[in-house]
Amino acid sequence: MTEDPRSASSAAAFPAAPTQAVVLAGGQGSRLRPYTDDRPKPMVEIPGTGLPIIGHQLAWLAAEGVTDAVVSCGHLAGVLQEWLAEAPLPLRVTTVVEEEPLGRGGGLKYAARHLPDPDGAWYATNGDVWTRFSLREMAAFHAERGAVATLALARPRIPWGVVETNEFGHVLDFIEAPLSPYPVNAGVYVFGPEFAALLPDLGDHERTTFPRLARERRLAGFPLPQGAYWRAIDTAKDLTEAARELAAQTGP
What we know:
- Residues 21-247 form the Nucleotidyl transferase domain.
- This is Guanyltransferase.
- By secondary structure, the chain is α/β, with parallel strands linked by helices.
- It is built from 7 helices and 11 strands.
- The chain has helices spanning 5-13, 53-63, 77-86, 103-112, 135-144, 209-215, 236-250; strands at 20-25, 68-73, 92-97, 122-126, 129-132, 149-154, 162-165, 171-175, 184-191, 219-223, 229-232.
- The strands form 3 sheets. The chain has a 7-stranded mixed sheet with strand order 3-2-1-4-9-6-10, sandwiched between helices. A two-stranded antiparallel sheet has the order 5-11.
- β2 (68-73), α3 (77-86) and β3 form a beta-alpha-beta unit.
- Mean pLDDT is 82; it is low at 1-14.
């Protein structure tokens, strides 16, 4: 049977989704104390799940086709490494520890050197993000736009109630915790194989590499699909909210 040339061109335009990822898990999590007094932030358990944040992340990555993950450790690295060594993980995991602080960009570049396929695309995620959405769709979005890097965009709820007014200044309504009108960096990324070379050896890529790519129109933003779950675990309140949302999803 003759191959449809449209299928061949489609396959070239949308290469296979990445199978490797970096998890940035070196933060101190000072706003999560006392939970982080004896463990790194990604090792804090989501109440009611029996798993730390990184356990949920690795399960999600594996479900999305990732077979190899590099976990970049820092604060209390030994606690995280011990858990990773003993837990029944759904994918292969390598850990790296920065001998001295390299900054977010430098740390990402250092971790990327340990990926099994340096010539392949890769995902990255911050170690404090709990989310569920299709990484394969994000990878296709990235490829379609010919981007060097793509970041997921979330619209979190504003933690305060807001007041809606008309053009005359009359109050029309009070809205409790509305969605932000502006998207934020969700801390999940797709990177092309050329991205690592653009990272600084020391410093923050969000102040150097990302602005440069944005000016060159080589940075894309993937809006999380409507209804996709996303939460950054920064404070004890976030843990409580995550547990409440989980209960609502699994309740009768």
